[in-house]
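Our preliminary data section would be incomplete without showing what the modeling component actually yields. Below, a chain of 764 amino acids is followed by its predicted structure, encoded as tokens that our downstream tools consume directly.
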Amino acid sequence: MVTPALPVAPDAGPGPGMDEPLKRILGARTATSLAKLGLETTGDLLRHYPRRYAEPGTMTDLASLVVGEHVTVMARVASATVRSMRSRGGAMMQAVVTDDVHRLNLTFFSKGPGALRVHEDRLRPGAVGLFTGTVGEYRGERQLTHPDYVLVGADADDEAAALTEASRPVPIYPASAAVPTWRIQRAVRTVLDPLTEEQVPDPVPAEILARHRYPSLLRALRLVHLPFTTSEAHQGLARLRFEEALVLQAELARRRAQVAALRTTARPARAGGLLEAFDARLPFTLTAGQQEVGEQLATDLAQSRPMQRLLQGDVGSGKTIVALRAMLQVVDAGGQAAILAPTEVLAAQHHRTIRALLGPLAEAGTLMGEAGATRVALLTGSLGARARKEALLEAASGQAGIVVGTHALLGEHVQFADLGLIVVDEQHRFGVEQRDALRGRAQTTPHMLVMTATPIPRTVAMTLFGDLEISELAGLPDGRAGVATHVVPAGRPAWVGRIWQRVREEVDAGNRVYVVCPRIDSDDAPDVLDDGGLLLDDDGAGASGGSGASDHAEGGPARPPLSAVTEVAEQLRAMPDLDGVRIGTLHGRLPAAEKDQAMADLASGAAPVLVATTVVEVGVDVPEATLMVILDADRFGISQLHQLRGRVGRGSRPGTCLLVSHAEPGTDAFERVERLASTTDGFELARLDLELRREGDVLGASQSGKASSLRLLRVVRDADLIARARQDAEALVAEDPALAAWPGLAAAIEDRLRDESKEFIDRS
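Predicted structure:
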């Protein structure tokens, strides 16, 4: 859709527009430093919201400061003195600031006392300010050396203005050592003061603003950045949260309208077909949840409007069986089904599982095949030329009713005879263009079933997958023994040593063991998982630098290097406790044949211990696996840990998951592993994951390292606001699907949700 561009203020106008480069307004030096925070235009800067507000009368608890961390604190000056240094020459000024209970030293050095007088004059006893620096320690006392600082009210034009400034909340911005929060505040004021309503296009239509009594965008920005009271700041933030919700819901409403207008080939169930034969040979009874969801899918597939459905369920709930039954209904109706998996390991697992479940029903054209059977083809990037040619031919001719594959299914040479259903497994690993490429292989719009093995609270799913119908698969198949989870502190060598004794006991009992590491080898970057996911730091943010959402970084002593598959495997092979036990390895860099062999050796018991990366997170099914050891568990997200432990206890024998953690009590990382050990409810854990991490991290929007399109909105906390925005968005789209009557809203959708950020809502 072509959307009108945002208006740009003319050079002769009263102030900059929202897309004006900061270099023109603030100068090259300031703009360059802000660009390191990703702020390059006026709009970027004004959308860089304060992370909190400091009340001038509320001091920072100085006792909580940790040596080595970069901090911004509010404190009151107690004293400031300048003296000459006899031993090393030059001069030193030492100021003391206090929270009225504890003290913090501020130290400045210079060649002579004259250069320090300016600090002495400003840092007078009683002055309140914000002080930024790295916490050090000298003779048992904490200090900031050469801190940057700003004094509350000190730069006002007169006494009255100073009193006013001193009484206002002080915004604390996501900042860095090079760009402290008050420099951002000054830049914001420089940019914001001259703006007019005409220069700030509002994404929220005027009638909606009036209905909900929200201020305009410009007024909201002023309330947030320059509040006189905290209630004013909250008023502005509420309006900006609603705007984010409306932009998101308007795009979802447009997509729902587009899907509603599409037509496809109906694929009704057929008596006496593959589906009936498959159900008759199942060695177990479907759970009530599987039967209920199966009926929903069967009804959807029988319609001429394409199915767009999200299937989610907890670990081990039996989603694969439900999806396979839907695929067989499509094959019975003369169509084909394709299942798209994110990794070769998972694609191969699906291929083996489906063939095993179908048995002779998957052997069309062979002596073992039953009447009416089909074929199941596998297409991955590492297939040899002959196998690839055969798989392509089976898909193009229609001989293969079911085609399983990875990204290789998206290749331009892949064709289908009549693609009727696409099943996307772990869909958040795939992009918009990738899903559209597979859709383009069909003669008409195919039905779409999206599966996720990461449970998502229903309120979240309705927001982020708002263009899909949602099915939740409840209950577990009979015979599952379950998993017990325990946290093992990495700092207790005796406890860690007991882990490897336990591994030997499991092997001797005929069971299988996974040992999961975050890295392949010691040379790998410590912030990216082998499957493309994002490793977490101790605060639950991406470890690759995060989003700058904090005004101080994690301090404390350095932790040991993250565990790596190659090193851990060698260590285990050298352990006397594991003498004679064959140790296998599995990671994403292995050739496909070696991956398959590693899984086969684990399943058969030839190599009963497998040291692997997170490529085993989903889909891998070895019923004899009873023990999983996750090293550096505190660096994984809750949902990922839950998926990993779901690989054990899948048979009749109970499973155990041991989380080896370096996390210190009181940290988010410690809470993650403790909460995981306390419950096996995936939906409850998903709620906690959303509380501890941004929604974009949980659902894959920041896999590319880019910021989530949701800066203020939190889908759990703001459920009522989102519901209100959804009603407004549906009314707007019903009146004008192109949103041409509201160019500000259309432009906001294209601007804020484009590229990777658009992935956050594109689940169709």
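Residues 1-15, 539-556, 696-708, 755-764 have pLDDT under 50 and may be disordered. The longest strand covers residues 70-84. Preliminary results of this kind motivate Aim 1 of the renewal.
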